Amino acid sequence: MDQYIKKTIIILLVCTYESSYASELPIFIQKYIQSIPCLEYDKKAIISAKDKACLIQKYLSSFIPFKKNLLLKGKTQLEDKLEYLIAHEKQIALVILGFPFKSTNHEKKCLGPNADLGEYLGLTTLTQLTQNVKSVYPNTHCTIISDGLAYHINDYDPSYEDIHNYHEQLILRIYHLYLGKLITILIHTKNYKKKLLPFY
């Protein structure tokens, strides 16, 4: 099949799921959501801060792909930190570095400079993760730090206009998915100032 036709089909697919925010999601997205790890426990039981911390630590660790002889370090320290935050009723801040911009390799890595299905599924994963942690400890929030503008290389990375448009598209997706109370995006610029992008 011609490469142009393939891209056109995928673009139409992306446009289709964009219109599905307020209705039933496409089957392949439903299946993707079902594949995301879920935090299961007895929600009627009264559990201690230590037990909550243990549940959350094990849940977050479940996102790390299993590999033979893989040794995970820091689990005890993470659990202790979580227990302290929960016991002192402080916010659990889930911080991720990501969503800088789209690759300029539009032939092999992405369709173009705009946010697409990859961002949708990425935000969906973060949404499910945050909601699962909030089910154990409500005072939880996810922050995405985008450093695409801080480490921008002229004539190599996308233009500043493309990156700004990309960030605006991410905000629109968060708005359409009603994630404003779950996810915040912080943009790092060349002079390392932080700009909090509003959702509404």
The coarse overall form would be globular
Mean pLDDT across residues: 81
Strand order of the largest sheet: 1-2-3-4
Largest sheet entry = 4 strands, mixed
Distance between the termini: 42 Å
List the secondary-structure elements in sequence, H or E.
HHHHEHEHEE
Unreliable residue stretches: 1-22, 191-200
> How many distinct beta strands?
4
Total count of helical runs of at least 4 residues = 6
Name the beta content range.
Answer: 5-15%
- Please state the structural category: alpha/beta
Description:
With 200 residues, this protein is an alpha/beta fold. The chain has a domain at 3-35 and 91-196. It is 44% helix and 11% strand. The chain has helices at 3-18, 27-35, 49-61, 75-87, 117-136, 160-176, and strands at residues 92-97, 140-146, 183-188, 194-196. Strands 1-2-3-4 form a four-stranded mixed sheet. α6 (160-176) links the parallel β2 (140-146) and β3 (183-188). The chain is globular and about 55 Å long. The chain starts with a helix and ends with a strand. 18% of the residues are buried. The model is unreliable at 1-22 and 191-200 (pLDDT under 50).
SSE blueprint and pairings:
Elements (H helix, E strand, L loop, with lengths): L2 H16 L8 H9 L13 H13 L13 H13 L4 E6 L19 H20 L3 E7 L13 H17 L6 E6 L5 E3 L4
Parallel strand pairs: 1-2, 2-3
Antiparallel strand pairs: 3-4
Helix pairs in contact: 3-4
Q: Which keywords apply here?
A:
single chain; 200 residues; alpha/beta; four-stranded mixed β-sheet; 6 helices; globular; disordered C terminus
